[in-house]
Amino acid sequence: MSIRILSFTFALAMFAVVAAASPSFAWPSEVVSPPSSGRTEVSIFVPTVPNAPQREGYCWTDSIAVTRAGAWRCMIGNTIADPCFSIAEFSDAVVCGANPATSTAGFLLRLTQALPPTSGVALPPPSPWMVVLAIGGGQVPGPYAMPPPKTFCSVLTGTSPVVDGQAVPFLCWEENVESKPKLGDTQIGLLGDFSPGKIWTVTEVYFVKNPIPGSKQPFKLTEKKTIALDRVWE
């Protein structure tokens, strides 16, 4: 074995030791394969009028989930619905519960109070509300195998988990999986540091409940990488 190979092997070993010992270790940032279409599809979500039983409630402020005009945070009894969307067909109702990832149409919320007036302050540019992680061409199995499930991620409107000292404002789930992860199960989230372009990217984190009793950090980071996005809804 040459000196160069020995040096490389030693460097890898030291890398592993430092990674395990240092809590502030900077995880490698590896970009996965881009979407098979070659670009990220970005669209402004506009719901249609749902064919579902109507409900009553009111909206008191702008949406936390969707940062654009016509998106609201509303009350239905004792439950908060966010986002709800204004639609052209009705001035006295909004659409709540619509989900473009699952093609859920939601329901029409008849307003018991007028929508709050706009503040006159310009809203920030639209930001991602819901995204689909890319399945690169190299990740798709052969023609007779089932393709990997899609992974969706949506912004949280409540408290974000803190992982490795950073808030995780987006949590992810796999297609057709409705149940919440159990304690100890690996969870997937996004840091929200989106990099727009022909292909959007963002930092993806995997984390579990911290196995150390009494730890001030309730979650433990297990993996961190840069991921490409197949689709973005704003």
What can you tell me about this protein's structure?
The protein has 234 residues and is mainly beta. The chain folds into two domains: 25-41 and 127-233, no CATH class; 46-111, no CATH class. Helix content is 8%, strand content 36%. It has one helix spanning 3-21, and strands spanning 41-43, 55-62, 71-76, 79-87, 90-96, 107-111, 130-133, 151-155, 162-163, 166-167, 170-174, 187-190, 201-209, 219-233. Strands 7-8-11-12-13-14 form a six-stranded antiparallel beta barrel. Strands 2-3-4-5-6 form a five-stranded mixed beta barrel. A hairpin with a 2-residue loop joins strand 4 and strand 5 (90-96). The longest helix is centred in the first third of the chain and has 19 residues, at 3-21. It is globular.
Q: What is the residue-mean pLDDT, rounded to a whole number?
A: 81
Number of domains: 2
User: What summary fits the major beta sheet?
Assistant: 6 strands, antiparallel, barrel
Number of strands: 14
Q: How does the overall form come out from the CA principal axes?
A: globular
Radius of gyration, Cα only, in angstroms?
A: 22 Å
Question: Helical percent range?
Answer: under 10%
% residues in beta strands: 35-45%
Biggest sheet, strands in spatial order?
7-8-11-12-13-14
Structural class: mainly beta
